[in-house]
Design a protein that fits this description.
The protein has about 160 residues and is α+β, with helices and mostly antiparallel strands. Helix content is about 55%, strand content about 20%. It has five helices and four strands; from the N terminus they run H-H-E-E-H-E-E-H-H.
């Protein structure tokens, strides 16, 4: 009996530690673990973004050719950041059309298209659609829109 109670006490302590590390407000075991899983996913996305930033800063010659796109999952939306050394006609329209194809409404956006192209946009729609969509899917769609736009401009 004593060892079973000890195991429960140890498990309870570990769950409380996990709860505090992940800033979870959940009370039951399952919810604490779900919150921890979401927290780990967010950390993986941050590591991926940092690795991309490091790669770009180490290869400044490649920076002219490759646009930098990062997508962060927010609670009910996505934060999309796009930076490209060169701006091309129709690039903003192409990205916004991609948002529309994905079913994302632009909630807020900041854009600069003079010499370089910068976009910071928050896109979201209904909760089920955002939850079922992955940040990587959004990122790939935006990258494809940029490639399509720059490819069609190169042909002109």
């Amino acid at each position: 009996m004593v060892s079973r109670e000890n195991k429960r006490a140890v498990l309870y302590e570990k769950l409380q530690l996990l709860r505090s590390v992940t800033n979870s407000h959940a009370l039951n075991k399952t919810s604490i673990i779900v919150d921890a899983s979401k927290y780990i996913k967010e950390l993986k996305q941050k590591v991926e973004r940092l690795n991309q930033d490091i790669a770009i800063s180490q290869n400044p010659s490649d920076q002219n050719q490759l646009p930098m796109v990062t997508v962060e999952t927010l609670e009910k939306s996505f934060l999309v950041n796009v930076f490209s050394e060169k701006s091309s006609p129709g690039l903003l329209v192409s990205i916004l059309e991609t948002f529309e194809e994905l079913g994302l409404n632009v909630i807020e956006a900041k854009v600069s298209c003079t010499d370089s192209f910068r976009l910071e946009a928050v896109g979201g729609e209904n909760q089920e659609q955002v939850e079922s969509m992955d940040a990587q899917v959004v990122k790939q769609a935006v990258l494809q829109a940029i490639m399509n736009c720059s490819g069609s401009n190169d042909k002109e």
